[in-house]
Amino acid sequence: MKRYKELFALPNVVILGISAFPARLAYSMIGLAIFFKTQQSTGSVAAAGLAIGLNSLAGSLTAGVRGSVMDRWGQKWPLRILVPSYAALILALSSMHTKESILVTAFLLGATAPPINLSVRPLWKDIVPEDYLRTAYALDSSMMSFTSVIGPIVITTLALSSHPALGLGVTSALMLIGGTALALTSVSRNWIPEKKAKGQQKLWRDRAIQILMFEGCFIGFGWGVFDVAVPALATQEGVAHRVAWIFAAFGIANVIGGLLGGLVSKKMAPRSALLRAYLLWVIACIPIVFTNPDWTMAVVGAGIGFIGGAVQVFYFEVLEAVRPQGSQTSSLGWIWSVEGSFMALGAAVGGFVSEHYSPRAGLALTPIMLAIGLTIFTIGKGRLAAANDVPTEAEDLAAIKDISNEVK
User: Fold this and answer.
1) Of 17, 313, 38, nearest to 181 (Cα)?
2) So what's the pLDDT on residue 199?
3) End-to-end Cα, the chain, rounded Å
4) What one-character-per-residue DSSP string does 219-271 give?
5) In sequence order, what are the residues at sequence separation of 6 or more whose Cβ sits closer than 8 angstroms to the Cβ of residue 241?
6) C-alpha–C-alpha distance, residues 208 and 279, integer Å
7) pTM of the shown model
8) Position 406 confidence tier, pLDDT thresholds 50, 70, 90
């Protein structure tokens, strides 16, 4: 882990990671926070599921818009407006008791969510040398995955305690602390968006972005189905309590895979690394169809999460290499809009398939969707040619020199 030690020695790296952590933890809690609030207030699980769906859908549909706003006006004012507004809305939700008011507020929360993750990602390029960007992306991805492991545990404990209102209260406080801390960091305050080239075409007309969005349709759909099929199978087998540690195994392995992905030599170009890891990802996902909601599903899930962590690191590198100028935030935002929308569709289909046919049929859709995603990237790899560059020896030496100067 020497490379991570060197990364942490660079100015602003630790500050950026720590400042964004509370807000990221809040995001990992908000879904279940909305679920428990709705279910406890209305007594309806269906209403709770609808509230989560509305929140997720609104967040997905507006991610590209929020990213575009930051690419045009920077991070300073969007964060300072959205963070306190979002925290206040969470507190408002805590005081509501009717189904209609809760559903409307859940939707508004999704539509006005501060783009914390979208804000952090482009900042790494400003504070670390090119040779350490893969490691920085790995650290960033692993931090997001880590919060996804502990967040559900924290919110479940609080929401089911003798003081359930603490769940939303703590979520609001974490967002306010983390979002404010990020907005006050010098690297965020001073971040200057790239200027678009004169006469530049719309982002969604870029051939590389089109490939990434097309793949996002299938990968989003596949994971949407997966997220419903796993608990559906466990519930059908009468072991619903095992869902938590199955997803925990997935999440922990995802963190480890992301960290190790950041150690892969820069001699392997991002596109090549992505395609190789993606193939392993498809292979690792196939056995999930034949598992049961016990140690077998936890082991296979851990394998999927481990390789998926590395895939995410290489994906970020590919996106950074092929995105059009002036789309540091909006490129990923619009891709997430597409992916998140299809994830919501996948969840709906997964629920229907699991109830009317079998949860295993739903699980079978996930490796199929991943295989289609790999096929799309393989056929369209020519559009991702900009991500197939390997640093020259001169560039590596220059990066090493920059690191030495900054550490000193």
Assistant:
1) 17
2) 66
3) 20
4) HHHHHHHHHHHHHHHHHHTT-GGGHHHHHHHHHHHHHHHHHHHTTS-TTS-HH
5) none
6) 20
7) 0.77
8) very low
